[in-house]
Each structure stands twice: as C-alpha cells, then as structure tokens.
Amino acid sequence: SFSQNQNYNDDFTFSALQFKQKTVLNSRFFTRKDLLITSICAKDNLIFVGNNLGRIGIFTKEKEIQQKTLEHQDISLSEKKSVVCMSISKDNSLLVSGYLNGFVALWEVDTGKCRYLIKDIHAPNCIISLKFIKAEKKLFEIVSSDVKGIVNKITISEGFFKSSINFNRILDNKNPIFIVEIMEYSEQEIANFQKKKIQIPVI
C-alpha cells in the first residue's frame, strides 16, 4: 500500500508498506504541492510510481533512491496527462503505461526510452486498465480498456525497416472496464478443456 504525505518543507514523500516490514521511500520525485500520485505498479524488485504530470518514477525496494524518471514531451504537453495505469513485462524489461488522455506508451526500463507512444487508439477516452499479453524481441501484445468500455488488443510488430502498430477491438461494453487480466492455462488444463470439448477463449 502507498500513502503520500506532506512534511514541513513542502516536499512530498510516499511510503511503501510490506506485509512483513515497513519500508519508507523518501523521494524528490514529488517536490511541488500540485504533484499527486495517480498510479502504482510493483513487481519483484521494482516499484513504478506515476503522477498527474505524466511522469513515472522508478524505484527499488532495497534502496531509498530514485533510479530514473520516464517522461515524454508529447505527454507532458497534454492537458490530461495523468498516469492512470501501468503494467510490467514478465522479464521486467518493458513497461506499458496508460494515460488520462487515452495515450498508451511502451518504455524500456533500463534506458528510460519511450519505444512507442500510441495516441490514436483510445484517445480521448481515459485508459483505466492494461496488461501485457506478450513481450518478445520483435513482437509486443497488450490488452487495454478505457472509460467508455472499449477493450482493445494492441499488437506492435517490429520489422527490419519499419514497425507496425495494429489493434483489434475485443469488446465495446458502453460501460467502463476497470480491470483486465490475462489468464494463462497450463498444458494439463488445456488438455482437460480439449477432452471435455470446452472452447478456450483466445484474444
């Protein structure tokens, strides 16, 4: 769990509480009164903290220091730029983030580089949930949902000369889809489904 507190110097800190022990990360990532935490994503040793100005700070659980900040000029110049949701790839090398303005960004965690900024799939609808389906060397698949109830599968394919970004609309629910999750089946589960002739949903 996380909390944001103001101290006497008008600096902001946030606290990361673990079940077995409490760890407090004091950070200069929030140094103004108008900066707010809008999204949190944690996996293994990494903690990602998004704010209402479209910036993402990367922290480690062991060190009370900020590693780097993920920031893109096109996001920072937007009126509705809050980081609403994030998802980290299985190998912790990539982060995907969704924004209040409907943008989706794919980041390299090690370098802090914005690999792709997708503006035209959900915008201007706020992204409220997204998850990695697949993150390989040249192929990235993401499922995303917005406040209008639209769920898309975004596919990014990298070629030798150019890359392509495509999307497939999975659902148009008319109401917000607040959480999307990826279900993974074991070989035994798949075999049981096939034996019982149960169709496995694939997106």
Explain what this protein looks like in three dimensions:
The chain is mainly β and 203 residues long. It is globular, with a radius of gyration of 18 Å. It is 6% helix and 47% strand. The chain has a 4-stranded antiparallel β-sheet with strand order 4-5-6-7, with no helix packed on it. Residues 6-12 and 17-21 have low confidence and may be disordered.
Write the layout of secondary structure elements.
Elements: E1 2-6, E2 12-17, E3 22-25, E4 37-43, E5 46-51, E6 56-60, E7 66-70, H1 73-76, E8 83-88, E9 94-99, E10 104-108, E11 114-118, E12 127-135, E13 139-146, E14 150-158, E15 163-172, H2 187-195
Antiparallel strand pairs: 1-2, 2-3, 4-5, 5-6, 6-7, 8-9, 9-10, 10-11, 12-13, 13-14, 14-15
In short:
With 203 residues, the protein is mainly beta. It has helices at residues 73-76, 187-195, and strands spanning 2-6, 12-17, 22-25, 37-43, 46-51, 56-60, 66-70, 83-88, 94-99, 104-108, 114-118, 127-135, 139-146, 150-158, 163-172.
DSSP helix count?
A: 2
Structural category is mainly beta
pLDDT under 50 segments (min length 5)? 6-12, 17-21
In what order do the strands lie side by side in the largest sheet? 4-5-6-7
Strand content: over 45%
Mean pLDDT: 80
Record field, number of beta strands: 15
User: Helix and strand succession?
Assistant: EEEEEEEHEEEEEEEEH
* Percent of residues in helices: under 10%
Report the sheet with the most strands, covering strand number, pairing sense and barrel closure. Answer: 4 strands, antiparallel
Rg:
18 Å
> Any idea what the shape is?
globular
Alpha-carbon distance between the termini?
A: 32 Å
